[in-house]
Specification:
The complex is a heterodimer of chains A (111) and B (112). With 111 residues, chain A is mostly beta strands. Chain A contains no helices and eleven strands. In chain A, strands 2, 4, 5, 6, 9, 10 and 11 form a seven-stranded mixed sheet that branches. Chain A has a four-stranded antiparallel sheet with strand order 1-3-8-7, with no helix packed on it. In chain A, a hairpin with a 2-residue loop joins β5 and β6. Chain B is mainly β and 112 residues long. In chain B, β6 and β7 form a beta hairpin. Classes of the chains: A mainly beta (111), B mainly beta (112).
Protein backbone atom coordinates (compact mmCIF):
# COMPACT_ATOMS: atom_id res chain seq x y z
CA UNK A 1 0.00 0.00 0.00
CA UNK A 2 1.55 3.28 -1.14
CA UNK A 3 -1.33 5.55 -0.21
CA UNK A 4 -0.99 9.08 1.08
CA UNK A 5 -4.29 10.74 1.91
CA UNK A 6 -5.02 14.46 2.03
CA UNK A 7 -8.00 16.41 3.31
CA UNK A 8 -9.82 18.44 2.28
CA UNK A 9 -9.81 17.87 -1.48
CA UNK A 10 -10.83 21.48 -2.13
CA UNK A 11 -10.64 24.56 0.08
CA UNK A 12 -11.80 28.12 -0.49
CA UNK A 13 -10.71 30.67 2.09
CA UNK A 14 -10.67 34.41 2.53
CA UNK A 15 -7.50 36.34 3.22
CA UNK A 16 -8.34 36.73 6.91
CA UNK A 17 -9.28 33.08 7.53
CA UNK A 18 -7.29 30.43 9.36
CA UNK A 19 -7.49 26.91 7.95
CA UNK A 20 -5.46 23.72 8.01
CA UNK A 21 -4.55 21.06 5.47
CA UNK A 22 -4.08 17.50 6.66
CA UNK A 23 -1.97 14.66 5.31
CA UNK A 24 -1.76 11.07 6.52
CA UNK A 25 0.35 8.04 5.61
CA UNK A 26 0.40 4.55 7.13
CA UNK A 27 3.43 3.15 5.33
CA UNK A 28 5.80 3.75 8.24
CA UNK A 29 7.75 6.26 6.19
CA UNK A 30 10.21 8.40 8.14
CA UNK A 31 9.89 11.56 6.02
CA UNK A 32 6.93 13.71 5.00
CA UNK A 33 6.88 16.66 2.62
CA UNK A 34 4.75 19.62 1.57
CA UNK A 35 4.92 20.77 -2.05
CA UNK A 36 3.09 23.59 -3.82
CA UNK A 37 2.13 23.34 -7.48
CA UNK A 38 0.84 26.22 -9.58
CA UNK A 39 -0.93 25.61 -12.88
CA UNK A 40 1.34 24.38 -15.69
CA UNK A 41 4.36 24.41 -13.34
CA UNK A 42 6.25 21.61 -11.61
CA UNK A 43 5.80 20.96 -7.88
CA UNK A 44 7.99 23.10 -5.63
CA UNK A 45 9.20 21.88 -2.26
CA UNK A 46 8.04 23.84 0.79
CA UNK A 47 8.90 21.76 3.88
CA UNK A 48 10.41 18.42 4.83
CA UNK A 49 9.96 16.58 8.12
CA UNK A 50 12.27 13.70 8.93
CA UNK A 51 11.51 11.58 12.01
CA UNK A 52 8.93 14.22 13.03
CA UNK A 53 11.49 17.04 13.02
CA UNK A 54 11.52 19.89 10.51
CA UNK A 55 14.61 19.35 8.39
CA UNK A 56 14.02 21.65 5.41
CA UNK A 57 12.14 24.95 5.12
CA UNK A 58 12.52 26.37 1.61
CA UNK A 59 12.21 29.98 2.80
CA UNK A 60 8.44 29.70 2.93
CA UNK A 61 6.53 32.77 4.26
CA UNK A 62 5.42 32.47 7.87
CA UNK A 63 1.74 32.55 6.84
CA UNK A 64 2.35 28.84 6.13
CA UNK A 65 3.04 26.90 9.32
CA UNK A 66 3.77 23.15 9.16
CA UNK A 67 3.23 20.72 12.00
CA UNK A 68 4.04 17.03 12.39
CA UNK A 69 2.11 15.71 15.42
CA UNK A 70 3.30 12.12 14.90
CA UNK A 71 5.04 9.96 12.33
CA UNK A 72 1.84 9.40 10.32
CA UNK A 73 0.39 12.89 10.27
CA UNK A 74 1.44 16.17 8.70
CA UNK A 75 -0.52 19.40 8.88
CA UNK A 76 -0.13 22.73 7.11
CA UNK A 77 -1.70 25.65 8.97
CA UNK A 78 -2.71 28.59 6.82
CA UNK A 79 -3.28 32.16 8.00
CA UNK A 80 -3.59 35.52 6.22
CA UNK A 81 -2.94 34.02 2.81
CA UNK A 82 -2.80 36.02 -0.40
CA UNK A 83 -4.64 35.27 -3.67
CA UNK A 84 -1.31 34.30 -5.24
CA UNK A 85 -1.10 31.43 -2.71
CA UNK A 86 -3.91 29.70 -4.60
CA UNK A 87 -2.44 26.43 -5.84
CA UNK A 88 -2.49 22.65 -5.51
CA UNK A 89 -0.83 21.66 -2.23
CA UNK A 90 0.72 18.22 -2.35
CA UNK A 91 1.87 16.04 0.50
CA UNK A 92 4.38 13.24 0.01
CA UNK A 93 6.07 10.63 2.16
CA UNK A 94 9.12 8.44 1.77
CA UNK A 95 11.42 6.05 3.53
CA UNK A 96 14.18 6.88 1.06
CA UNK A 97 14.18 10.33 -0.63
CA UNK A 98 14.40 8.80 -4.09
CA UNK A 99 11.02 7.13 -3.67
CA UNK A 100 8.58 9.85 -2.66
CA UNK A 101 4.89 8.95 -2.84
CA UNK A 102 2.43 11.77 -3.31
CA UNK A 103 -1.11 12.29 -2.11
CA UNK A 104 -3.89 13.57 -4.39
CA UNK A 105 -3.45 17.15 -3.23
CA UNK A 106 -5.67 19.91 -1.85
CA UNK A 107 -6.83 22.52 -4.35
CA UNK A 108 -6.69 25.82 -2.44
CA UNK A 109 -8.36 29.00 -3.62
CA UNK A 110 -7.76 32.23 -1.71
CA UNK A 111 -10.35 34.93 -2.34
CA UNK B 1 17.98 28.58 -12.86
CA UNK B 2 16.19 25.55 -14.30
CA UNK B 3 18.47 22.64 -13.39
CA UNK B 4 16.14 20.01 -14.85
CA UNK B 5 14.55 20.64 -18.23
CA UNK B 6 11.98 18.91 -20.34
CA UNK B 7 12.15 20.70 -23.65
CA UNK B 8 9.09 19.10 -25.22
CA UNK B 9 5.91 20.44 -23.61
CA UNK B 10 3.80 17.90 -25.46
CA UNK B 11 4.05 14.63 -27.36
CA UNK B 12 1.48 12.57 -29.29
CA UNK B 13 2.02 8.87 -29.95
CA UNK B 14 -0.09 6.20 -31.62
CA UNK B 15 -1.40 3.47 -29.33
CA UNK B 16 0.88 0.43 -29.37
CA UNK B 17 3.94 2.42 -30.42
CA UNK B 18 6.88 3.51 -28.29
CA UNK B 19 6.70 6.77 -26.34
CA UNK B 20 10.02 8.45 -25.61
CA UNK B 21 10.11 11.29 -23.11
CA UNK B 22 13.30 13.26 -22.67
CA UNK B 23 14.88 15.17 -19.83
CA UNK B 24 18.12 17.16 -19.57
CA UNK B 25 19.89 18.37 -16.46
CA UNK B 26 22.72 20.75 -15.73
CA UNK B 27 23.88 19.74 -12.24
CA UNK B 28 26.36 16.85 -12.43
CA UNK B 29 26.00 16.35 -8.66
CA UNK B 30 22.57 14.73 -8.96
CA UNK B 31 22.63 11.13 -7.67
CA UNK B 32 19.15 9.89 -8.49
CA UNK B 33 16.60 10.56 -11.20
CA UNK B 34 12.92 9.82 -11.02
CA UNK B 35 9.92 9.85 -13.35
CA UNK B 36 6.42 10.72 -12.22
CA UNK B 37 3.12 10.60 -14.06
CA UNK B 38 0.37 13.06 -13.23
CA UNK B 39 -3.31 13.10 -14.15
CA UNK B 40 -5.27 16.35 -13.78
CA UNK B 41 -6.39 17.11 -10.22
CA UNK B 42 -4.34 14.21 -8.83
CA UNK B 43 -0.95 13.97 -7.17
CA UNK B 44 2.08 12.72 -9.12
CA UNK B 45 2.43 8.93 -9.27
CA UNK B 46 5.95 7.53 -8.92
CA UNK B 47 6.86 5.43 -11.96
CA UNK B 48 10.53 4.52 -11.97
CA UNK B 49 13.89 5.78 -10.77
CA UNK B 50 17.52 5.32 -11.67
CA UNK B 51 20.72 5.79 -9.74
CA UNK B 52 23.51 7.81 -11.33
CA UNK B 53 25.76 4.73 -11.22
CA UNK B 54 23.50 2.89 -13.66
CA UNK B 55 22.64 3.59 -17.27
CA UNK B 56 19.39 1.65 -17.52
CA UNK B 57 16.52 0.55 -15.31
CA UNK B 58 13.49 -1.40 -16.43
CA UNK B 59 10.09 -2.02 -14.86
CA UNK B 60 7.47 -3.65 -17.03
CA UNK B 61 6.59 -1.35 -19.91
CA UNK B 62 8.78 1.45 -18.54
CA UNK B 63 12.52 1.78 -19.12
CA UNK B 64 14.66 4.72 -18.09
CA UNK B 65 18.01 5.37 -19.76
CA UNK B 66 20.67 7.64 -18.30
CA UNK B 67 23.51 9.19 -20.29
CA UNK B 68 25.70 10.94 -17.73
CA UNK B 69 28.16 12.37 -20.21
CA UNK B 70 25.32 14.09 -22.05
CA UNK B 71 23.43 14.88 -18.81
CA UNK B 72 20.36 13.36 -20.42
CA UNK B 73 17.78 10.81 -19.42
CA UNK B 74 14.83 9.36 -21.23
CA UNK B 75 11.75 7.34 -20.36
CA UNK B 76 10.58 4.73 -22.85
CA UNK B 77 7.04 3.36 -22.65
CA UNK B 78 6.40 0.26 -24.76
CA UNK B 79 3.74 -0.40 -25.88
CA UNK B 80 1.93 2.87 -25.28
CA UNK B 81 -1.64 2.56 -23.99
CA UNK B 82 -4.48 5.12 -23.77
CA UNK B 83 -4.17 5.17 -19.97
CA UNK B 84 -0.63 6.50 -20.38
CA UNK B 85 -2.04 9.87 -21.48
CA UNK B 86 -0.90 12.22 -18.69
CA UNK B 87 1.77 14.79 -17.83
CA UNK B 88 5.16 13.24 -17.13
CA UNK B 89 7.69 14.92 -14.87
CA UNK B 90 11.30 13.97 -14.47
CA UNK B 91 12.94 14.88 -11.17
CA UNK B 92 16.44 14.76 -9.74
CA UNK B 93 17.90 14.36 -6.28
CA UNK B 94 21.24 14.65 -4.49
CA UNK B 95 22.14 12.23 -1.71
CA UNK B 96 21.85 13.86 1.68
CA UNK B 97 19.29 16.29 0.31
CA UNK B 98 15.60 15.45 0.46
CA UNK B 99 14.68 18.00 -2.21
CA UNK B 100 13.36 16.79 -5.54
CA UNK B 101 14.06 19.19 -8.40
CA UNK B 102 11.37 18.73 -11.02
CA UNK B 103 11.39 19.41 -14.73
CA UNK B 104 8.57 21.40 -16.32
CA UNK B 105 6.69 18.35 -17.56
CA UNK B 106 5.69 16.82 -20.91
CA UNK B 107 2.06 16.17 -21.75
CA UNK B 108 1.81 12.76 -23.43
CA UNK B 109 -1.27 11.99 -25.51
CA UNK B 110 -1.81 8.45 -26.76
CA UNK B 111 -3.90 8.37 -29.91
CA UNK B 112 -6.18 5.30 -30.18
Amino acid sequence: DTEVTQTPKHLVMGMTNKKSLKCEQHMGHRAMYWYKQKAKKPPELMFVYSYEKLSINESVPSRFSPECPNSSLLNLHLHALQPEDSALYLCASSQEPHEQYFGPGTRLTVT
Amino acid sequence: DQQVKQNSPSLSVQEGRISILNCDYTNSMFDYFLWYKKYPAEGPTFLISISSIKDKNEDGRFTVFLNKSAKHLSLHIVPSQPGDSAVYFCAALRFGNEKLTFGTGTRLTIIP
